[in-house]
Amino acid sequence: MTRDPVRIALVLPDLLGTYGDRGNVMVLAQRLKWRGIDSEAVTVLSSAQEVPESCDVYMIGGGEDVAQVAAVNFLRRGGGLQRAVSRGAPVLGICGGLQVLGTGFVTGDGDEHEGLGLVDAWTEPGAGRAIGEVTEHATLGAVGMLTGFENHLGRTVLGEHAQPLGRVTRGTGNGHDGVEGAVSGHVVCTYLHGPVLARNPQLADLLLEWAIGEPLEPLPDPPELRALRTQRTRLHVRERK
Ligand code: GLN
Predict the structure, then answer these.
(1) What atom in ligand 1 is closest to the CA of residue 193?
(2) Is 170 annotated as a binding residue?
(3) Which of 90, 120, 197, 234 could cross-link with 161 by S-S, CB 3.0 to 4.6 Å?
(4) Element at 203 (helix H, strand E)
(5) 57 Cα to the center of ligand 1, angstroms
(6) Sign of the CA dihedral running 137, 143, 149, 155
(7) Active site includes 193?
(8) What ligand 1 atom has the least distance to the C-alpha of 129?
(9) Structure pTM?
(10) How many angstroms separate the CA atoms of 208 and 143, rounded?
């Protein structure tokens, strides 16, 4: 059976692209390729009219406060992302992307900004930046253990319509209730950089299965990820000297 290439949207990397989260697009494309499925990366810059609503999966990275506000204004104007979400398209929002997709956020200067409201999560600045490795047990079915690197000032409280992405075993995460991230339907938000999908291919495959609407054949994990998945080993982080 031939199928159209899976369209992977990278949303506003010129605003929310500080932390290399565009690598998540490469991971999705490669995991499809290994299964003989073509994909097409669709980069949506802030000079575009709007986000095309016809893509199969959407990636939004992290960034600075000012860039987040510009991103909300852009996304609110066009409405393409919101329409894609309402037809069930999966979205991954990382860090600043989480805050943009949430109900609202207070920036470091104390100003309050409305978010897109695609996930029930409200963010305010914490006492200091949360920086370092994170491990957590995902709340989503087969995803298991997640790892990543956090670097954020914001602390996020979930409302009753969102579930956390995971229960934190190391690191700060949302900074409330021992949890990390926010999930609502097929909108998955996390503070984990890494890029997160390179470190957690099982999450990449979940997003892809939602995107194409069918199960994917499993791929073997590299040994270091297999060790993490079994949870028999602790995460070893080699500090740079
Ligand atoms: N500006 C946000 C914060 O510090 C997001 C940072 C990020 O995307 N890493 O909370």
Answers:
(1) 9
(2) no
(3) 120
(4) helix 201-212
(5) 22
(6) negative
(7) yes
(8) 4
(9) 0.92
(10) 13
